[in-house]
Amino acid sequence: MSSYFTDLAQQYIDGEWRQGTGSWDIIDFNPYNGEKLASITIATVDEVDEAYLAAQRAQKEWAATNPYARRAVFEKTLRIIEEREAEITEVIIAELGGTHLKAGFELHLAKEFLRESIQLALRPEGKILPSPIDGKENRLYRVPVGVVGVISPFNFPFLLSLKSVAPALALGNGVVLKPHQNTPIVGGSLVAKIFEDAGLPGGLLNVVITDIAEIGDAFIEHPVPKVISFTGSDKVGRHVATVCASHFKSAVLELGGNSALVVLDDADIDYAVDAAVFSRYVHQGQVCMAANRVLVDRSIADEFTEKFVAKVKTLKVGDPSDPQTIIGPVINSSQADALTGAVDQAIAEGATALVRGATTDNLVEPTVLTDLPADSAILRQEIFGPVALLVTFDGEEEAVRIVNDTPYGLSGAVHTADVERGVAFAKQIDTGMFHVNDGTVHDEPLVPFGGEKHSGIGRLNGETTVDAFTTQKWISVQHGRSFFPF
Question: Dihedral angle at the C-alpha atoms of 396, 402, 403, 408, nearest 10 degrees?
């Protein structure tokens, strides 16, 4: 494992591994034990420029490459990930504090999305459209946008980097990837190394490990990229969207959520408890789709609450390298402090703690709050940690109102014995995704993924990925002669 953090603690620009030339280093720490994993000298504005220019140069030849030849690179990429799965798992555990369960979940989805990228290389299709003008043939081509800039987050960095990088490359684009500062290896240089070993031509994929304190908005302002794919907070996403709009770029924004899992009065309570606990506590709750709020019909609230609390108390907290651990550390001390502060504030406002987990360094034990005042701030914000909010309601109409009372609209779920009742409920929720009789945390290669309101703009996966990373070009051919009035 150590060789990954030694060998990959570099920038990857124009097919070369090299040190950044910035004046300071990003220090990569293990969030569980504080061990220093790597020291990476940051990339400067000049290196961001070099990366984009390299991608621009390499992209022309790549776009002209037979798509069957492009597809072969992704087939090999998938084989490499399968061969190195044990090593990658160790790196995820060390750099993210992800558990074995979480690493397996992330790698499974990463492989599924790579399988879809293999097909995407052959996906773009043109059209012949009719014309009202005699003799004219209208051809509609789908072509790569050119270069895509990708900014990935710290929670699922391997998956969420690949989710944009792989399809963008498969569709004929060049890419520059900027991973989160807390996950520079898993979210950045590891991705580059795998593609390099798979035979991707140099310059097509570049990784710049840096910080906005050094480069400002250079990554998104640069004239080369035509699309910026950003996954992260709605606060930063708003800024990315503003800068992109002012520079006539497209932005694909996958932002935060404040999802609810709703348990109606006819639900299978034991099953709903299992779904709710997973949806809230997977990867310490550091998931945009996590069920921040668990809404339960008052008629079954006592039974549900008792079983929910009992299950939460069984979750093992500790060393993520222990296969039995369910709750590992949050990503850094700032996140741990913010969670503690949010819970303290909610309790001060009148909430009751059915479970009050302690915070030790970056280990935040599970908390379960109930009796929250209707105006409690924590009900409307994204909680990126192992804190569950139990809310009772009287009837579906009130449940719909509570679920929608948030600036976010990413995911959600409802549990009921009547599937069509669940679908009718889901249709009333202002959200991009909603699940009947399941958890809130889902992502599939073919199904459009994205949110409403402050949860993002645009969609990825399947055909929506083709739309995001290609553009349409109209070429007309006049086989006869047009008439011109002068």
Answer: 160
The DSSP bridge partners found for residue 127 are 140
Burial of 63 (0-12, 13-18, 19+ CB in 10 A): middle
Residues taking part in catalysis:
254, 288
pLDDT in tens, 165-190: 999 999 999 999 999 999 999 999 99
Q: What is the DSSP letter of 187?
A: I
CA angle 179, 184, 190 (to 5 degrees): 95
pLDDT class for 125, splitting at 50, 70, 90? Answer: confident
No. of helices (H) and no. of strands (E), the chain: 16, 24
- Residue 46 CA to residue 44 CA, distance in Å, equals 5
Distance from the Cα of residue 146 to its chain's centroid: 22
Which segments of 13-146 does DSSP mark as H helices, in order? 45-64, 67-83, 85-96, 100-120
DSSP, collapsed to helix, strand or coil, labels residue 322 as coil
pLDDT in tens, 4-42: 999 999 999 999 999 999 999 999 999 999 999 999 999
Residue labelled with tokens 């070993």 = 197
Q: Are 150 and 176 in contact (CB under 8 A)?
A: yes
CA atoms 257, 456, 328, 412: torsion sign: positive
Would the pTM of this model clear 0.90, i.e. be above it? yes
Spatial distance between the Cα atoms of 286 and 148, rounded to a whole number of angstroms: 26
Q: How much is the pLDDT for 124?
A: 85
- Helix (H, G, I), strand (E, B), or coil: what is residue 13? strand
